[in-house]
Structure formats: structure tokens, C-alpha cells
Amino acid sequence: MSCISNFIYNKKYLKKNFKNYLRINISLYKYFFIENPEIIKKKIKSLCHKLKIFGRIYISYEGINIQANILKKYFDIIKKKISNLHQDLKNIHINVGIDNSRISFNTLSVKIKKRIIFDGLDSFKLNKNFKNKYLNSQEVNNLLYNKEAIFIDMRNNYEHKIGHFKNAILMNTSIFREQLKKIFKYISKYKKKKIVLYCTGGIRCEKTSLWMQKNGYKNVYQIRGGIIGYINDCIKKNHSIHFLGKNFVFDLRLYETITEHILSYCNQCYRKSDYYVNCINNRCNILFIQCLFCSKIYRSFCSKKCYIEFHCK
Known about the structure:
The protein has three domains: 3-112, Alpha-Beta Plaits; 134-237, Oxidized Rhodanese, domain 1; 264-311, no CATH class. Helix content is 33%, strand content 22%. The chain has helices at 3-9, 11-17, 37-51, 75-83, 137-144, 157-162, 176-187, 203-214, 226-237, 292-298, 304-311; strands spanning 23-31, 54-60, 63-71, 95-96, 108-112, 134-135, 149-153, 163-165, 169-170, 194-198, 220-223, 243-248, 255-257, 276-278, 287-289.
């Protein structure tokens, strides 16, 4: 195994040798037809090895989905290399994380999947005649309190719980494919209004918008770059930020702090808290909110039952 491969897969080596290197978290996606995903996979793995990229990368016939941690000094090179992978990736938008003080990934996983995000729409094919409508941060702020617009949170209930736009509609599901099944029941009465979709980085809204257009909805919009794109655009243009709380992320960080609002409660004592942890009992491993007080009592277990089970193995 080469030195580069050792870098990719050796966590101790990362911690010891690259602790002081400035790294940033990025995410990007693109729906487009890939004739041979295996070729793209080999090119991406080679790029990751050469430029010391960690992350989770999915490739399928319908596109790519990349979440990664990179050295900041390589950002422009990486963007150019990705743009050159395929003609449909030219000038691709890359979200830069809001919180880059913590590492999101310390290993690399590049996989070929049936879908770049599992949606359950096996018979639905992307239609290039449908065009997504994107909103920048100012347009989002203008619509947030407009009676002729509604906001739909396309994330799971546990993501929404710790941070969201005020008055956004949540479909109270824990998986994306369930949202797509239920969405028309929630929004059928709003068909004549402007419907604004939002999610973490935009990938779920991209598919949802096309799915809604296929089902006769014309006034469908999404936030460019999702929550991450909205926050970065607000900061860049000095606009007021109306997203409250924390932005849940699917990596080692679990969240990015947007505002100091605490919207959720500890699962054990019901004090206000927004810190997610996984139960330390591997047989359980449930994701739950635990305040600092309960973390001392339960020691990162979700219950006394899990604590006893773990120590009685």
C-alpha cells in the first residue's frame, strides 16, 4: 500500500501529522446520466488519493453525491478536477461548510449506488424538460413571511428538531422516501402558492422539485445550495439569517451551529438541549438528544437499561 493510501485510511496518521493543516468541509451533487459509473469512480478515487481527500462519495447512473473534508489549499484544484470529470460537471456549485473548525470525515468511502440518494422512486426518470427554480438568500428572506408562500422542510424529523426556518412544514418522517410518498397529502391545498423546498445542501430538494413538477406543481422553488448555501450567501452579502438553531449534518460533527436558539429538548430530563449523541451501547446505537447534565448521569447511554445491558455482556 502506498504512502498516499496509508494517509487515506490511517486515522492516527491524520491526527499526528495533519492536525495543524487548514482543512475545510465541502459538499456537492449533480444529477446527470453517467454511462459508466466505474470509470468515474476510478477517477475520483485517484483524485482523492493524490489530494488527500476524506469523505463519503456516491456515484450512480443518475449522478454523483460528494461530502468531503479537504485541505483548503487544494480547493481550486479540486473544483477544476471535478469540473473536468464530465461535461455535465462544468462550473459545478460546491458548498463550503459553515463550521470548518471540526473534521467531518477521517476516512474515504467511494461507492457505486443505484441512487445517489435513496428515494424509492424506482419508476421515475429525470426529465430534462423540467427546470428547477433556485432562490438566493435575499429572495428566501422576502418569501419567509409572505402569505402567498409556504416552506417545506425536506429533511427528517430529527434534523428539523434542532434547527429550522420558522413555520416550515415538516412531514414528520425519518427517511426521505417516506417524505416523497406523503408530500402531496401535506401540500395539495397549497398548489396555487409558491412552494419553497429546503434541505441541508439541496440534493433532496432537487429530486423533490422534479417529482412535484411531474405531478402538476408549477410554482416550486428551492434554496440554492440548501441551508448551507443560504447561510453562506447571507454572510457574504450581509443579509439577516432567519434559520434558527443548528444545521444537522451526516458526518462526524453531527451539527453546525447557526444561531444560539435551542429548539429541542433532552430525551431523558426534557431540559432544553440540542446535542445529539449515539447510544454507546453498540446493540442500541440510537441517535438521541442528551443534555450535559444527563450525559454525566447516563454516560452517553440512552437509558439505564442500555447501561446495564452494556456492562453485563
